[in-house]
Structures are given as structure tokens and as C-alpha cells.
Write a structure and sequence with these properties.
globular; alpha+beta; 414 residues; 19 helices; 12% strand; binds alpha-D-glucopyranose; three-stranded antiparallel beta sheet
């Protein structure tokens, strides 16, 4: 016991003498992402005496991945802390530091499935930061006005959207749309299209045994239905929408339905939101509803010159207090299981409790089966969906061509 003060003093001394460094993190650039990410990173900096530099990445996860791969190939130390999409740990495994020496077992308090996803060859390559699942946002006031319920199938969504759009336009609101979502040719379209296909019995493109399953009548039909939305219940511009474009239209009170991730909820509640108090959140249509699983982790680049300090920032950013604050103010779903019992978190985000089953059953993209070839698989899938929606192919043609393309990518094995 009598050594304790001495130890404490030397601990304090050590932290004061450690040279302060600048840590570069990739926050943003869109929505509340940059705001919350930087706020907490700066709080860590103030606490530790280090400084933070932001390296603002592109919005699209597809472009983010390309950028990281370029930097990693050059063994660049430009970025210390990297945001890692749920579909990337396997792809980036050679360039990320094992966080186990820094996590001190705290990973046991996060969702086991996410920790398993982030672990490659026994190394923990990313600490879970937040988890995502596709959700259906709807205008409560308008469904009530037109006597409609929350749609249970994609067909029902199509019909309700057409009815309300016609009604609102007849009233003079010529910019009003039935449904907005993400249909630009990028990773987000893979998520959306998996939800239509999966929710209509068409499977997951490649199944867990690695078999290519996409060439089936239900998948073709689901893509044809999505194509029928373009220029009818959805603006043609949706073919170039990412998450933020869809949110812009919906939050300006110009759409009945929107498919988006949980982060959009907190932004709907802001004073500048034209739909404040009018929005409901439900599981996506489908039988079964097939919400895509998403989410982000924080990892440390192997080429960082300050790995231990960068890891300290990662541990801080993924800690309970930061996850709780991000959940309450930014509606980012925590990855720490205990926070789903937190009163303040649940009060700020009713859907986190009410839709627990959506988060538990969300559908993973086929990364496990396709391994390092996943980016090619995903790109082929989003291109096929984009072609159908741009009326350059029918759903039947597209799934048949996609099957051949995937066989080429797979060759003998994934
Ligand atoms: C969200 C998800 C991520 C997904 C991306 C697609 O950020 O969390 O997993 O890849 O959207 O745009």
C-alpha cells in the first residue's frame, strides 16, 4: 500500500513526459459524422495533450476503400486512425494493427458477432464503433391522412407511395415523391438491392456455402419492381443518390418513405428539419424483412508512427461514454450491449428498443463466402441493379449476366 502514492506520482510523471503527438483520424465528411467524430476526438486530445488532425474522406464507402488501399499500398503513415466498414476487415487485414494489447478484454462487452467480424487470424483489427441496419422512415402524418398503414411488402410500399404522391402533387406539391433511397452505383446500392431481393425471397447473391444464387425468378422480379419506381414514385435523380441526398429530400418534407440508416433519425429531430415530430421508423418491407447489416469500426494503421497513442484514441472513441453520447445526440447504434438497456439512449431513440429484432436479424453482405473477392462481387451486383433501374436490362437479363460474371470472378474458388 505504501508504494501506491509513489506509483501514482510516477504514472502522472510518465504521462506528462510522453511527447505529445498529432494523430490523424478520418472523420466525416457527411451528416453528423464529422461533427460527432471530431468533437470526441478533440475531447481526447484535450485530455491527453495530443492534437488531432482530420483527414476528410470521400462520402462513398467505395471511394473511401479505394483511398485507403492506395495509402496502404504506399505504406503511408498519413492516417493513424482508420474508419473501417463492416465489410472490410478481411480486405485490410495486412495493414491494420492488432488492438488486443490495448483493448484489455473490453471487447467482451461488445456484440460478439461484430467482434468475430473484426477478428482475423486471432487479431482484433477494429474496435466496434457503431452498428447499422437498413430502416424504413415514413411520414406518420401522411399515412394517417391517407388512411394507410406502414407497408409490409415492397408491393404495398409501391402502391402507397403512388397514392400519396398523386394526392400531394394534386394539391400543388409538385416536388413530392413517394420513396427515396440509395441507387448510385456504389456499395450503398448493394445494401439497398440486397434488401429488395432478400425481402422478396431472392436470397443473398452468394449463399453461405459460396454458391452463386442470384439467378432466380424472385431476384429478377425484385429488381424489375425497383426499376418501376424510377421516374414514378422516385425521382430519376435517385440513380445518383447516396444516403445524404435521400435524407435531404425526406427531411425537406418532399417524400413519404425513405430507406436509410439509423443516423438519419437524430437529424430529423433538429429544429431545422421540416419533418420534426412527423417521422416514424419501421422495419423494411419484406417477408422476411431483410435489413442490410452495416456499421463502422475504428482501427490503427500499421504504418502509423504512433500506434500506441492512436490505439488509445480508438479505445476512447469506442468507450461506453462516447458511444452513449453518440447514441443520444447522433442516433448511432451502440455496439456495447449494455447501452441497449440505458434509459437515456432508449428515450432518444425509441426504435433502438422497438426494432431490436431488426438489428438482431439484419442480413450480412456475402463477405464471408467471397473473401477478398467481395469488392468485385459487390460491384458486379450494384452494376446489375443499376442497369435494370436505368432500363438498360430487364431483371431476368441482369441476373443471368450477373451469374456468369460471378462465375468468372470465382473461377475455381472464392
Ligand atoms: C453505411 C453502413 C455501411 C455501408 C454503407 C453503404 O455507412 O454502415 O456498412 O457499407 O452505409 O453506403
Amino acid at each position: 500500500m505504501k508504494f501506491l502514492p509513489l506509483l501514482l506520482i510516477s504514472g502522472v510523471f510518465a504521462s506528462f513526459t510522453a511527447k505529445a503527438v498529432e494523430i490523424t483520424i478520418t472523420c466525416g465528411p457527411s451528416g453528423s459524422d464529422v461533427e460527432f467524430c471530431l468533437k470526441h476526438a478533440q475531447a481526447w486530445a484535450a485530455k491527453t495533450g495530443n492534437t488531432i488532425k482530420n483527414f476528410s474522406p470521400p462520402t462513398s464507402p467505395t471511394e473511401k476503400l479505394a483511398l485507403y488501399r492506395q495509402l496502404f499500398a504506399a505504406k503511408s503513415g498519413d492516417i493513424d486512425v482508420v474508419q473501417i466498414d463492416t465489410v472490410w476487415p478481411g480486405l485490410l487485414k495486412d495493414h491494420l494493427t492488432d488492438l488486443k494489447p490495448y483493448s484489455k478484454g473490453i471487447e467482451a462487452e461488445h456484440f460478439p458477432a461484430i467482434i468475430a467480424n473484426n477478428s482475423v487470424n486471432g487479431k482484433l483489427l477494429g474496435m466496434p464503433w457503431y452498428t447499422d441496419a437498413g430502416l424504413l422512415y415514413y411520414r406518420k402524418d401522411l399515412l394517417q391522412k391517407y388512411g394507410l398503414r406502414v407497408p409490409q411488402t415492397w408491393e404495398e410500399l409501391t402502391q402507397s407511395a403512388a397514392k400519396v404522391q398523386a394526392g400531394e402533387r394534386a394539391k400543388g406539391d409538385s416536388d413530392f415523391h413517394g420513396f427515396v433511397f440509395q441507387a448510385k452505383a456504389y456499395e450503398g446500392l448493394t445494401c439497398n438491392a440486397l434488401e429488395w431481393v432478400g425481402g422478396q425471397g431472392g436470397g443473398t447473391v452468394v449463399n453461405s456455402d459460396g454458391e452463386i444464387t442470384i439467378r432466380n425468378a424472385q431476384a429478377a422480379k425484385a429488381l424489375n419492381l425497383a426499376a418501376s419506381w424510377i421516374g414514378t414514385i422516385s425521382p430519376t435523380g435517385v440513380l445518383n443518390y447516396e444516403e445524404e441526398e435521400a435524407r435531404g429530400v425526406f427531411q425537406n418534407a418532399n417524400a413519404l418513405f425513405m430507406r436509410n440508416w439509423p443516423y438519419a433519425w437524430s437529424l430529423m429531430q433538429k429544429n431545422d428539419s421540416l419533418v420534426k415530430g412527423k417521422v416514424g421508423v419501421a422495419k423494411l418491407p419484406g417477408n422476411p424483412s431483410a435489413a442490410a447489416l452495416g456499421g463502422w469500426q475504428l482501427g490503427v494503421s500499421k504504418y502509423s508512427k504512433h500506434q500506441a497513442i492512436a490505439a488509445d484514441l480508438v479505445m476512447y472513441m469506442t468507450s461506453a461514454s462516447v458511444q452513449k453520447s453518440r447514441a443520444i445526440h447522433g442516433s448511432f447504434n451502440p455496439t456495447l450491449t449494455a447501452l441497449y438497456k440505458d434509459k437515456e439512449v432508449l428515450e432518444a431513440n425509441e426504435f433502438m428498443g422497438a426494432l431490436a429484432e431488426v438489428f438482431a436479424n439484419s442480413v450480412a453482405r456475402p463477405t464471408t463466402a467471397t473473401g477478398l473477392k467481395y469488392p468485385q462481387v459487390s460491384q458486379s451486383f450494384w452494376n446489375a441493379a443499376h442497369e435494370v433501374m436505368s432500363k438498360r436490362a430487364t431483371g431476368e437479363e441482369a441476373v443471368s449476366k450477373l451469374e456468369s460474371r460471378l462465375k468468372q470472378i470465382r473461377r475455381k474458388h472464392w
